[in-house]
Design goal:
seven-stranded mixed beta sheet, 36% helix, 6 helices, Spore Coat Polysaccharide Biosynthesis Protein SpsA, Chain A, alpha/beta
Length: 227
């Protein structure tokens, strides 16, 4: 894919393999239901990044593209790559640095655990003139991180997968003296309680006449009927 825009938007995703994704939803849901749900998360997240204009789009998959899920899902305007690095911070740092090396001026990464994330939040990050863009999530981490024109080392020493991720990133931000674009708070869907809240929130969004995470809401109506 040839570089078209100065902005790069990256969706970080797990390869959808049975028993390897959203494991915190087990045993609340069966593995097959969890896999179906996560593929819906991916489809809705892909729909979201397609809505964002003035950016080139990427999917960074981990640990590999073994499932083949993304084959045919991305062409012609989304480029797939395999995440490189040990911890999540290493993978994000490498993905951002690679895009800067390719000539991009702004790089934003979002996760695939927030399928109802408004595209307008991503638009705000990609139009910012700040050094770093951060979307805090309710679990103590963040659903979006991005930088403008240079790598800012905020990933070192962060305890990934804990409730202190956001705070530790903030401390690195202070140390580096970087200017911050803070986005509205949103949420990830990881646990059974998250999933129940997510379903209620989707119902409210739909009732308000706003866009919902279409693939996901259809499946949730089915799999949560017995819970």
């Amino acid at each position: 894919m040839t570089k078209v825009h100065d902005n790069a938007l990256i969706l970080f995703a797990r390869d959808p393999v049975l028993g390897k994704v959203k494991t915190r939803l087990s045993p609340f849901l069966e593995d097959k239901s969890i896999l179906k749900l996560y593929t819906c998360f991916l489809k809705d997240s892909l729909d979201t990044i397609r809505q964002v204009e003035n950016t080139d789009r990427f999917v960074g998959v981990a640990p590999s593209n073994e499932s083949g899920f993304f084959a045919g899902m991305l062409a012609p305007n989304i480029k797939l790559f395999v995440q490189e690095g040990e911890q999540l911070g290493d993978k994000m740092r490498q993905a951002i640095q690679d895009r800067f090396d390719e000539g991009y001026k702004r790089v934003v990464i979002i996760g695939s655990d927030s399928p109802s994330l408004p595209a307008s939040y991503i638009d705000k990050a990609l139009s910012s003139d700040k050094d770093l863009f951060l979307g805090p999530s309710t679990d103590g981490g963040y659903y979006l991180i991005g930088m403008r024109e240079k790598m800012i080392e905020v990933f070192d020493g962060v305890n990934w997968g804990t409730q202190t991720v956001l705070d530790e990133t903030f401390q690195r931000l202070i140390q580096k003296g970087a200017k911050l674009e803070l986005l509205p708070v949103w949420y990830d869907v990881d646990s059974p309680d998250d999933l129940k809240f997510f379903k209620t929130h989707l119902d409210l969004i739909e009732q308000a006449g706003l866009k919902v995470a279409g693939e996901t809401v259809k499946l949730l109506n089915t799999i949560l009927a017995s819970h």
